[in-house]
């Protein structure tokens, strides 16, 4: 296992060494003394496992394509933003905008996620073991968003084709979001996903609420202007 020490070095230097080590064939890298600094492990574009020994600041693991980034602590705003593929696993909680605009891969947060989780996601899977804040899933376009705990206000507002699942209470549904019952196949998928990433089933998949778009906002109709005013 390769080890990289953050102490006394700039984030640019640390990220350059991560990419250099991977290019030289190191497939498992431990980054020590992260100090909650911002922009760690961004733009890693090759398969490898990068473990951050401590918390990370803003925009950790953004713009990645292929690696597994594991954070021993918590992460700040913008976790995994715009990732294309790979895995990002946070053993603590995450700040605002986690998994925003991801196109693929899997983001797992073992704690809670703050506001705007998974906004404008375009694919992939986002799994939160705890609760999430307001406006999670806002304008999410594809992929799967799973919250095992409670969801905050305006959940799934202006949703497109992303399918959301909530195991706890939903404080308030966003505009054009509707609740359905998961199909047996979706319940089985939830059970398998929770067992794989959380090590247990947490709650049975059949007990989750499914939230999808009501599709009223998918095409503008001037006769429903009041509905659009609410969304805006």
Secondary-structure map with pairings?
Blueprint (H helix, E strand, L loop, with lengths): L1 E4 L5 H13 L4 E5 L16 E5 L11 E7 L13 E6 L15 E4 L12 E7 L13 E6 L15 E4 L10 E4 L3 H15 L10 E5 L11 H7 L1
Parallel strand pairs: 1-2, 2-3, 3-4, 4-5, 5-6, 6-7, 7-8, 8-9
Antiparallel strand pairs: 9-11, 10-11
Could you characterize what this model shows?
There is one protein chain. The chain is 15% helix and 25% strand. The protein has 232 residues and is an alpha/beta fold. It folds into two domains: 1-92; 116-218, no CATH class. The termini are far apart. 47% of the residues are buried.
Spell out the key features of this protein.
single chain, 232 residues, alpha/beta, 2 domains, eleven-stranded mixed β-sheet, 3 helices, elongated
How far is the N terminus from the C terminus? 50 Å
The computed structural class is alpha/beta
User: Could you estimate the helical fraction of the residues in percent?
Assistant: 10-25%
| Element-level helix/strand string | EHEEEEEEEEEHEH
* Overall pLDDT: 93
User: Care to count the β-strands?
Assistant: 11
What is the general shape? elongated
Low-confidence stretches: none
Supply the number of structural domains.
Answer: 2
Number of separate helices: 3
% residues in beta strands: 15-25%
Question: In what order do the strands lie side by side in the largest sheet?
Answer: 1-2-3-4-5-6-7-8-9-11-10
Radius of gyration, in Å, reads: 18 Å
Note the main sheet: 11 strands, mixed
């Amino acid at each position: 296992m390769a080890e990289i020490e953050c102490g006394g070095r700039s984030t640019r230097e640390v990220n350059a060494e991560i990419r250099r080590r991977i290019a030289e064939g190191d497939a498992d890298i431990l980054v020590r003394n992260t100090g909650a600094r911002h922009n760690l492990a961004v733009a890693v574009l090759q398969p490898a496992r990068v473990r951050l020994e401590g918390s990370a600041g803003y925009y950790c693991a953004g713009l990645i394509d292929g690696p597994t980034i594991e954070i021993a602590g918590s992460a700040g705003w913008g976790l995994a933003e715009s990732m294309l593929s790979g895995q990002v696993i946070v053993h603590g909680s995450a700040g605002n905008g986690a998994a925003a605009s991801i196109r693929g891969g899997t983001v797992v947060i073992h704690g809670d996620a703050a506001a705007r989780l998974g906004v404008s996601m375009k694919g992939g899977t986002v799994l939160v073991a705890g609760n999430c804040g307001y406006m999670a899933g806002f304008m999410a376009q594809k992929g799967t968003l799973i919250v095992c705990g409670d969801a905050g206000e305006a959940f799934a507002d202006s949703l497109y084709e992303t399918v959301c699942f909530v195991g706890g209470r939903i404080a308030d549904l966003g505009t054009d979001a509707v609740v359905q019952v998961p199909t047996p196949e979706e319940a089985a998928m939830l059970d398998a996903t929770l067992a794989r990433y959380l090590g247990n089933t947490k709650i049975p998949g059949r007990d989750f609420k499914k939230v999808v778009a009501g599709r009223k906002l998918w095409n503008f109709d001037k006769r429903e202007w009041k509905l659009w005013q609410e969304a805006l």
